[in-house]
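Amino acid chain:
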Amino acid sequence: MRWDGADFGGAKLAALHDGGLLAYRRDDRPELPFPGMIDLPGGGREGDESPEDCALRELAEEFGIVVPSARIHYRRAYLLGDGATVSHFLAVRLTAEEVASVQFGDEGQDWALMPVADFIDDAEAVPRLREWLRHYLAADETVRYLDTTSKNPGNA
């Protein structure tokens, strides 16, 4: 899976285990985007990191789980609603040991390994992540990278 080096604003990660999805409830502060909503690991890019580095750094900061980038099996780029910012959505499978070792960080109210379908159906989950997760589930197993920015809208 190769990143083309194009600028992006951040990355989100679907961290999956046995039908479950690692998720957390965001802090309920009005200055935050999506206050109090259910979210996935991830956040803004720091320095010149790649989408994989960004998502995995956030996973380590938010949940204390360190995963090598070689385990990421899906990535798709999305152009956000402002028409300028690109965000990446990635997926990785966690082991039972990794889930059991979660050390929840200081961002957010609580965390859970929730059924994927429950996240998609929950009106309190971040809307675009519900959509991106649907795209992931619909993607063919051979899909490794889709660029759905304005240059290539993709069809997944």
Q: What stands out?
A: The helical segments are 51-63, 96-100, 116-121, 127-138. The radius of gyration is 15 Å. Strands lie at 10-17, 20-25, 38-39, 42-44, 72-79, 86-93, 110-115, 145-148. The chain has four helices and eight strands.
